[in-house]
Amino acid sequence: MGSLEDGVPETAAHAGGADEEGTLDAIAFVGDTLGPLFYYDPAAAEVRPTYEALSGLDVEAAATEWPFVSAEDAEGALRLIVAGLTRDAGGEVPRGSATDGASHEGAADGTSQAVSDDLAWEYRRLFVGPAAKAAPPWGSVYTDRECVIFGASTLELRRWMRQVGIEKLNDDNEPEDHIGLMLTMLSWVATRRPDVLDEFLGAHLLTWAPHFLEGVERETTHPFFEGLARLARASLAGIQRERGIEVELPRFYR
Question: pLDDT at residue 7 above 70?
């Protein structure tokens, strides 16, 4: 499946009018692109190519191709994302290529110049700690009365994964309902198990992810994460419309 540095798959653009295969490709693209940005620390090698691709993005062109989201909404979110990768995060993003020809070769410590210290610190403040996380990235923190990880919704997701034969996508002790893992799983399911895609979306991801993403928009002080949350929320809303999925929302405790 393609990723941002490969460009939006041709069948993914304007997925509202695409056939089923094109729609599935577009869903996989959304999950592949956005999931790692929530899951990995910005300094991690796994996301370096994506950050470098974003820092040199032609915003207008990318916005017209981003699936499930209007070009206007996609452009607004992408401009915030790219603004967060410029040296002056509060500055105006240039038209067209956001980097205006700037170089993004690796820094002396091996990290991308597209990732600044304030971006990495904001990621950790929102999602990692060690202080209280501003936007915990696990579903059960919002849907469990005790606001804990590995809550009832996590265990329900785990049982569902066993029932449909989906193995855990990571090897560590991270709860399965981490937003980054679930977006990556969205891509996996769209590509390999499309027969259970709507069930995954309606019963496990769309139940809490929009609520979480609204919280990220509210809590963040950095344009990159505001734009990322906006783009992810709009993409999921577009996928829900495209698939005609009805979602029964749980009670939120946070």
Answer: no
Helices (H) and strands (E) in the chain — how many of each?
11, 0
Q: What is the pLDDT of residue 153?
A: 96
Scored b (16 or more CB within 10 A) or e, 122-146 reads bbbbbbeeeeebbbbbbbbbbbbee
DSSP 207: T
> 178 in helix, strand or coil?
strand
Cis ω before 130 (30° cut-off from 0): yes
How far, in Å, CA of 200 to CA of 202, rounded?
6
Residues pairing with 138 in the sheet: 178
Contacts of 97 (CB under 8 A, 6+ apart): 56, 57, 58
> Do residues 38 and 137 make contact, with C-beta atoms less than 8 angstroms apart?
yes
Helix runs in 84-222, H state only: 117-127, 140-143, 152-164, 179-192, 197-200, 209-219
Cα(149)–Cα(151) distance, integer angstroms: 5
- pLDDT tops 70 at residue 107: no
Convert the pLDDT of each residue in 154-205 to its tens digit: 999 999 999 999 988 776 789 999 999 999 999 999 999 999 999 999 999 9
pLDDT number for residue 169: 75
Q: Which helix (H) or strand (E) holds 241?
A: helix 223-243
Tokens representing 60 are 């207008």
Asked whether 186 and 205 are in contact (CB, 8 A), the reply is yes
State residue 184's pLDDT score: 97
